[in-house]
Amino acid sequence: MNNEYKNMAGRLIVALDYPDATQASLLIDQLQGIPCYIKVGMQLFYAAGPDFVRELKSKGYSVFLDLKMHDIPNTVRGGAESITRLGVDMFNVHAAGGTQMMQAAYEGMVTALASDPSLKKPLIIAVTQLTSTSQSVLNDQIGVTGNIQDAVVRYAKLTAEAGLQGVVASAQEVPSIGKACGSDFITVTPGIRPAGSHIGDQSRVLTPGEAIRQGSHYIVVGRPITAATNPREAAELIIEEMIQS
């Protein structure tokens, strides 16, 4: 396993789109040895709980806990403290909660680290606009005027002002985010679909290679891996495309 492979594999986040730990564990076993991130979302976390996250960490995986916290600052502060104590490598909040709420998430993380020096400092990122959000949904249903890119960049700037390390956004918006917030500001991009695959409920999608060329720091891939006949082969092919980009 060469350094280029390790680097790109570490930028692949596999989303565990499963309703329970039993099914998720089968995939984890198939991916063993690939140094990728694993994303645990709401469905799986609510079913399997913190113990599943601890199991992933014990197997050497980096974990992105995708719970998209969006609440009053005090509640988010407490949630961030608890999440940090789990030892995750990355977690997120909604940028729509505002700078005070995002700062509270950072404060909760700091409190947890101060109480246990053995804990690793996780990346805290903020969701800008979901990749399922279309222009019409943004304007007509959410009630935000302007185009999606402008809304995403505005939230990214707020996130940076709040002291968080990056955002979740479509790879299509990555160049604009980098221009507004700097190249070191982390972008995590879902809505990634290998060429020829079904886009499902996503609206703003790119292939793995396109996302890397756009400057994405991490790409999130779910169903193209989890629903594949051979998930390990599917992950390997995506990593190869990332390397070749």
Brief sketch in words of this structure:
The protein has 245 residues and is α/β, with parallel strands linked by helices.
Q: Describe the strand arrangement of the main beta sheet, using strand numbers.
A: 1-2-3-4-5-6-7-8
Question: Between the first and last Cα atoms, what is the distance in angstroms?
Answer: 19 Å
Tell me about the biggest sheet? 8 strands, parallel, barrel
Derived structural class: alpha/beta
DSSP summary, beta strand count: 8
Along the chain, the helix and strand elements come as HEHEHHEHEHEHHEHEHEHH
Q: Fraction of residues in helices?
A: 40-55%
Radius of gyration of CA atoms, rounded to a whole number: 17 Å
β-strand amount: 15-25%
Uncertain segments are: none
Q: Name the shape in a single word.
A: globular
Count of helical segments? 12
Average pLDDT for all residues: 92
Task: Characterise this structure.
With 245 residues, this protein is an alpha/beta fold. The protein has twelve helices and eight strands. It has helices spanning 3-9, 21-31, 42-48, 50-58, 73-85, 99-115, 135-142, 148-161, 174-181, 208-214, 223-226, 231-244, and strands at 12-15, 37-41, 62-69, 90-94, 123-127, 166-168, 186-189, 218-221. It has an eight-stranded parallel barrel with strand order 1-2-3-4-5-6-7-8, surrounded by eight helices. The longest helix is centred in the middle third of the chain and has 17 residues, at 99-115.
